[in-house]
From TrEMBL:
Protein's UniProt name: Ferredoxin
Pfam families documented for this protein: Fer4
UniProt key word ATP-binding: no
Domain 4Fe-4S ferredoxin-type: 1-30, 31-60
Superkingdom to which the source organism belongs: Bacteria
Organism of provenance: Leptospira vanthielii
PANTHER family to which the protein is assigned, alphabetical: FERREDOXIN, OXIDOREDUCTASE
Cofactor(s) needed: [3Fe-4S] cluster; [4Fe-4S] cluster
Record-linked InterPro entries: 4Fe4S_Fe-S-bd, 4Fe4S_Fe_S_CS, 7Fe_ferredoxin, RnfB_subfamily
Protein's job: Ferredoxins are iron-sulfur proteins that transfer electrons in a wide variety of metabolic reactions.
Amino acid sequence: MAYVVTEICVDCKYTNCAAVCPVEAFHEAPDTLYIDPDTCIDCNACQYECPIDAIFPDYDVPEKHKPSIEVNAKEANKFPVIVTTKPPLKGAKCSDPSK
């Protein structure tokens, strides 16, 4: 099992989740984050840190977000690892209710 960042993160890109990851499984794309399923150790720390509920265990990803499982696996290693907290993107597509 691995955790998955869904498209809910697109244009929001909160990084609290990456900062708590003990194995550096998060990768930063310009508008979102991805989790490398081969690095993820299923510790669940990231899910609790996500303020917009964009992260799910792969077995519990909502049906409409299932494509995110494959997207994370394919895209994660195309981008650099992120281990720190940065200001959120909060762009136009961000579904963050606190925006």
